[in-house]
């Protein structure tokens, strides 16, 4: 059974809670590095084989299925081919955007985001090595160093100037897997997960993530437990973000492992429903 694969008692209890009352379960996941492998070009990050099918199967067996991502919600739906997953909720920009049933809602970007957008080209022209790229997310901007000759050194060299820029524009600087993101304060996956769990009246929650930005969601999992909601934090393991695996209840081998976990959970729930 899937419940036996969690390494912590709390994680096993969370998975058991999903199985005991799937109609009130919330299954949520990050996108990049979790449902989709990390690639050099973010625009080319497509889901791991079987990911869409696993979510679709779960959508017919649990109360709520969601993706919580730093990307624009509509971009994830289009890139991932998720439009036909029944009932899927996609919270983009760390919960600032919401896509559901083909409808997108989003607040306007803060002025500081445009200030960063205007300032980044000049800053990177003098401070960034060749291969540094910028991903414009609309309400945030991410500076990637994965394509540089020394991605780790490039990331460290940019941390201070980008931190100063964030401070001047009222944004926060958040590190990730060979990326530094400038985004408005108060936007994080933990708050998004808690709000969604409350909205959906979830009695159990599972969240899968791989990066530093997902640690806020793992903290939310612990908060949910303290309120009596069985929950499980799943790490899509990565050598670039070992902290995530350290804080997880269950560790799987990257996006393929996430797909196997979600597919196995769908199998378990299908078998329980057939009894």
Can you characterise this structure?
This protein is α/β, with parallel strands linked by helices and 275 residues long. The chain folds into two domains: 2-106 and 187-274, Rossmann fold (3-Layer(aba) Sandwich); 111-183, Alpha-Beta Plaits (2-Layer Sandwich). The chain is 41% helix and 20% strand. It has helices at residues 9-20, 51-59, 73-80, 111-127, 151-169, 189-199, 215-226, 242-246, 254-274, and strands spanning 25-29, 64-68, 89-92, 97-100, 103-105, 133-136, 141-144, 172-176, 179-183, 204-209, 230-236, 250-252. The chain has an eight-stranded mixed beta sheet with strand order 5-4-3-2-1-10-11-12, sandwiched between helices. Strand 11, helix 8 and strand 12 form a beta-alpha-beta unit. Helix 4 packs antiparallel against helix 5 (151-169) and helix 6 (189-199) runs parallel beside helix 7 (215-226). It is globular, with a radius of gyration of 18 Å. The chain starts with 8 loop residues before the first helix and ends with a helix. The mean pLDDT is 92.
Spell out the key features of this protein:
alpha/beta, 275 residues, 41% helix, 9 helices, Alpha-Beta Plaits
Show the helix and strand layout.
Layout lengths: L8 H12 L4 E5 L21 H9 L4 E5 L4 H8 L8 E4 L4 E4 L2 E3 L5 H17 L5 E4 L4 E4 L6 H19 L2 E5 L2 E5 L5 H11 L4 E6 L5 H12 L3 E7 L5 H5 L3 E3 L1 H21 L1
Parallel strand pairs: 1-2, 1-10, 2-3, 10-11, 11-12
Antiparallel strand pairs: 3-4, 4-5, 6-7, 7-9, 8-9
Shape: globular
CATH topology of the largest domain: Rossmann fold
The low-confidence runs, each spanning 5 or more residues with pLDDT under 50, are none
Q: Whole-number radius of gyration?
A: 18 Å
Structural class from helices and strands? alpha/beta
Instruction: Compute the number of strand runs.
Output: 12
The helix tally amounts to 9
Distance between the amino and carboxyl termini: 15 Å
Q: Calculate the mean pLDDT score and round it.
A: 92
Count of domains? 2
CATH superfamily of the largest domain: HAD superfamily/HAD-like
What is the name of the CATH architecture of the largest domain? 3-Layer(aba) Sandwich
């Amino acid at each position: 059974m899937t419940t036996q694969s969690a390494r912590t008692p709390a994680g096993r209890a969370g998975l058991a809670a999903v199985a005991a009352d799937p109609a009130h379960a919330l299954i949520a996941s990050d996108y990049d590095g979790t449902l989709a492998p990390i690639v050099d070009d973010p625009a080319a990050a497509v889901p791991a084989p079987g990911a869409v099918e696993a979510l679709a199967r779960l959508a017919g067996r649990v109360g709520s299925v969601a993706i919580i991502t730093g990307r624009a919600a509509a971009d994830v739906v289009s890139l991932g081919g998720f439009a036909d997953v029944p009932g899927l909720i996609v919270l983009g920009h760390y919960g600032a955007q919401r896509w559901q049933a083909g409808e997108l809602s989003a607040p306007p970007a803060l002025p500081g985001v445009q200030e960063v957008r205007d300032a980044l080209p000049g800053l990177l022209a003098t401070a960034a090595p060749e291969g540094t790229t910028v991903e414009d997310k609309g309400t945030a901007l991410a500076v990637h160093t994965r394509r540089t000759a020394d991605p780790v050194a490039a990331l460290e060299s940019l941390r201070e100037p980008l931190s100063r820029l964030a401070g001047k524009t009222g944004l926060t600087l958040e590190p990730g897997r060979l990326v530094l993101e400038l985004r408005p304060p108060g936007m994080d996956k933990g708050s998004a997960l808690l709000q969604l769990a409350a909205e959906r009246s979830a009695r159990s929650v599972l969240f899968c993530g791989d990066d530093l930005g997902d640690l806020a969601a793992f903290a939310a999992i612990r908060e949910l437990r303290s309120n009596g909601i069985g929950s499980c934090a799943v790490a899509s393991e990565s050598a670039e973000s070992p902290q995530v695996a350290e804080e997880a209840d269950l560790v799987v081998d990257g996006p393929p492992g996430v797909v196997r976990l979600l597919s196995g959970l769908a199998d378990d729930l299908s078998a329980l429903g057939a009894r």
